[in-house]
Write a structure and sequence with these properties.
nine-stranded mixed beta sheet, alpha/beta
Length: 239
Amino acid sequence: MKEEMSMNQVTITDDKIDDRRSEAFKSLRTNLQFCGEDKKVIAITSCTPNEGKSSVSMQLAVSLADSGKHVLMLDADLRNSSILGKTKVGKTAIMGLTHFLAGQSTIQEIICSTNVKNLHLIYSGPFPPNPAEQLAGKKFKSTIEALRKVYDYIIIDTPPLGSVIDGAIIAEICDGSILVIESGVIRYRFAQEIKEQLEKSNCPILGVVLNKYDIQRPGYGSYYGEHYGHYEKRQENKR
């Protein structure tokens, strides 16, 4: 069924990473799988634009597919998609999610096969006049419910929660969410506000990806321990 649904072929150009990053995404993949088989539809979001959430979404989808899982990468950032720039499309015009939600195409017409085995992709499509309304509609929800019966994982790239509400709307129908935070850029209080907004959508936060961290900085090896301690201290101060 998965192969029958794929009508277009695209090439993912953002799938070549160094060994260190590859191991990091394998670790992220393993942690996601340990969350349970019921965590199939995953929303990836961030606080602000340009934190790297789309790259994280793509690399996580590729890593899951490399492990033998059947994966759908869904670009639901209808306002400012960057997934198209991470792929190479042939001469044939590609339909996207907004075409489908507007009734201009079928689900078969928007699902693309890729050069990565087991990985399919749906582009966002052109910017619609009412993105939040389209994502909150019954058609989007019923489509996700149908697709979860076909794929082992659906990775959904969503808009930054600090900019628009779309990510929270999408998270409501997901099994879990992952927050991407750019190192040294996002303030602690702002990250807490985004976390609280995700929690209001009743979507479990499965974890946080610290992105764009300078591994050349002194203390890289103990970074996680140090910052976990700082987090605990701040939590204690709030009590």
